[in-house]
Amino acid sequence: MLFLFVLVGIVAGCGSSSSSQPALPTVAPAHVYHLAGFTPTASVQAGRPARVSFTIILPSGRPLTAYKRGSGPHNGVDLIIVRSDDSHLLYEDSDIAPNGKITQPVVFPAPGRYRVVVDAYPKPTSPSSQSNLQLSTWITVAGRAKLHPVPSFSSTVSVDGYRFTLAKPVSLYAIQPAFLSVTVSDPQGRPTRFTPWRGALAHAIFIRAGSLDYFHTHVCAPGATNCTARFGASKIAGSSSAPGELKVGVLAPVPGTWRMFLLTSIDGHRLTAPFTLKVA
Fold it and tell me: Of these four, 28, 248, 263, 276, which has the most CB atoms within 10 Å of its CB?
């Protein structure tokens, strides 16, 4: 799924100045997807809307204009924005113009350097078409950044009075699907009811400390379609079949310390609960 990386292959020719050998042809670098016209190019101010815009260019050199639409969370273009210390995460859904230009106002919470991951789902043209692609760049927010170390593991996180509890942490290994059980209660201690948001009951966004590697899984209702995350031959889909209960899928591409940002919509509140995980 969403942790599909575009690899650039460059074929290099090595020639000789000897007149006894024929000249070798020059081979140009392979064409790849890339971002064009990305703004802002200068630093922006914290707490003020910044206009993020760009166009995704196809390997052919033309703009990407046709995106996947339909049920489930794997559609259009998502912006995943995280500060370099893994302390602030923004998850934005973007508007796409008919000419392929993507525009989204973003309010950055604090000074620092932010990685912007563009997670795009082109409209499939054949059964073998890749499901998505990822491109990234950086935005600097002006001011002196107060960077924070990654917090140690805690099984319970409270957000606006709502309590997220991770039960029985399991051993996690790279490229091996696993599930985490999370219970969520409201300020009165009652199990919460999740409201579908952007195609899922919950979004689990994982960011690796230091490198800011990224992957993303979803929690959907039983029987939901278009909810599965994939990495190579491995795949996983989270589920929720009772109030206050989330079965969160984990499929980390590499080992390390990861921050899991669990995003939900509950009683009209958009909540983000961060957890620190170790992947062996």
Answer: 248
* 93, β-bridge pairs: 78
Nearest CA among 219, 223, 224, 253 for reference residue 237:
219
DSSP label of 147? -
Q: Which CATH number is 156-279's, of 3.40.190.10, 3.90.550.10, 3.55.50.30, 2.60.40.1940?
A: 2.60.40.1940
Of 27, 92, 97, 101, the residue nearest 57 (C-alpha): 101
Distance CA(223)–CA(239), nearest Å, equals 9
Q: How far apart are CA 222 and CA 257, in angstroms?
A: 30
- C-alpha span between 124 and 153 (Å, rounded): 40
pLDDT of residue 170: 81
Phi/psi class of residue 226: alpha, beta or left (left: φ > 0; alpha: ψ in -120 to 50)?
A: left
> Where do the CATH 2.60.40.10 domains begin and end in the chain?
34-141
Per-residue pLDDT tens over the stretch 179-233: 999 999 999 999 999 999 988 999 999 999 999 999 999 999 988 878 888 887 8
CATH number listed for the domain at residues 34-141 = 2.60.40.10
Nearest alpha-carbon partner for 93 in 83, 103, 82, 108: 103
Domain with CATH 2.60.40.1940 in the chain: 156-279
* Cβ proximity of 97 and 62 under 8 Å: no
Q: CA 60 to CA 272: how far, in whole Å?
A: 39
Question: CA-CA distance, 115 to 176, in Å (whole number)?
Answer: 26
